[in-house]
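INFO  loader      accepted 1 record
INFO  loader      residues=574
INFO  predictor   begin
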Amino acid sequence: MRIGLLTEGGYPYVSGDARLWCDRLVRGLGGHEFDIYALSRSERQEDEGWIELPPQVSRVRTAPLWTAEDDGVVYGRRARRRFEEAYGELAAALCGGPDAGNASDGPDPATAEADRFGSALYGLAELARDEGGLVGALRSEAAVRALERACRAPGAQGAAREARVPDLLAVAAHLERALRPLSLDWYEDDGLGSVDLCHAAAGGPAALPGLLAHHFSEVPLLVTEYGVPLRAHYLASGADDSAPAVRSLLAAFHGRLASEVYRRAALVTPGNTHTRRWQERCGADREKLRTVYPGMDASHFAEVGESPETADPDTLIWVGRIEPAKDLISLLHAFAEVRKEEPKTRLRIIGAATGAESEAYLGHCRALAAQLFPDEAEGIHAVGDNPVSFEEIGGPESPTLAEAYAVGAVVVLSSVVEGFPISLVEAMFCGRATVSTDVGAVVEIIGGTGLVVPPRNPRALAEACVALLRDPARRERLGAAARARALELFTVEQNVEAFHGIYLEVVSRSPVHKVVLDHAGEPLPFAVPAEAHVAGRWTHADIRVVARGGPSWATGRASAPVQATAVPAGEGAR
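INFO  predictor   done
INFO  writer      dumping tokens
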């Protein structure tokens, strides 16, 4: 079958989110054909180029989310009226306007509100398709006026009513960026309209082209989320200094978009139970959810996992990206307690800082380590040695990721915020006992094969580490169980096999709907053979599709019924 893989800020670019997962999925499903539709996040990402693509990728189309030139489209009077009506409805759905969620609209106010948002979204998409673009209209004064009317309308939320002109301009600018995919030329019959299935590698902007392909061509949509974009938006807005009106309206937009994606998707595949709970809270139907754990390449860690005796019994290891959410401050304070009980213990922090904030945080951690653990020397003429070291992968002592995990007896995760911590799975592949904070999907990943403590609790973290340091047999049992669990649940093979079945399930629910007429103009029953991916043509007749929505490999597509043509005797499917 032909898959339209939708990404945002990731595959096929060299850097970005879910790049490795997408590449492993595409390479693992060599029997399918993939078209990649990628939204980039920055000019730097585009300049870095693409990774080497496998032969089953037949087409790559890209578009920037970070910039958009004015399309130069000038709307006539009727088009301007259509835009003002659709954008006004969208704004009213965000503000909780006079009719949004009104119980008189139906038995389920939430459904009525979702319908209003969806109707406005698709109205804007149809306008962009008819007129050739939407960028100029979204940047126009008419958009700001429509947003202002919705904020001032009776029944609007309190935060929206407080919006001032700078707030309205900020919200309008954000909506223009978020709605840029509506103006793309991806939705024709030679684009996403020709694929059998759209697979969005994330929710939010990545899934928006899939929504439009479903709306215009009835292409089924599959959405995979290993982290919830709405949750990420909430976390980012918590540190934002924007006005309350701006935060409220943008949160409403991202919440409505997430709900619409979940409503229209044929299936949604969360990467863990933590993500699944968020999706259900945002309106996803439980019947549509299939948990599929992310697949990782276990072969890199096989040698370490099969040789647990290589670990230093007096060393704790932390591996990851250095940033405040990892709470290395609590880890350093916990290690101070560990040293009181086990003075020979060392802590190796292996990771890299990315960005100014991460660099500043790393500097703070180094300073705290120097303060908590003054360099200790055996004599007055010896050089002091700090028991905490900060290293990067590729250095002389940790040249590879697997060797970084190999040097320690216990791997520690001290985060206060996590989704699906990859470093924890890597440690399990290496057969290492782990101590982790209870955040995100940690408990689901560990499944009883490691120790879990509350976040921001250095004393509990220290006690768990000391317990494992003092009990080598327990460390060995937990490490072996962790490796067995990881090999069963978190490998590339299980991930690819799961999606192979899901693709078939989704497409089987979206059969080709065709109408073939006989010579009298009446529908001809059983005129179309059963769907199968067979090379060649079924008959000499040029069967064409009336209603779209099925696999493109089964037949061509058109817009009107066709006459049946007799097949010469002795000839049939070839």
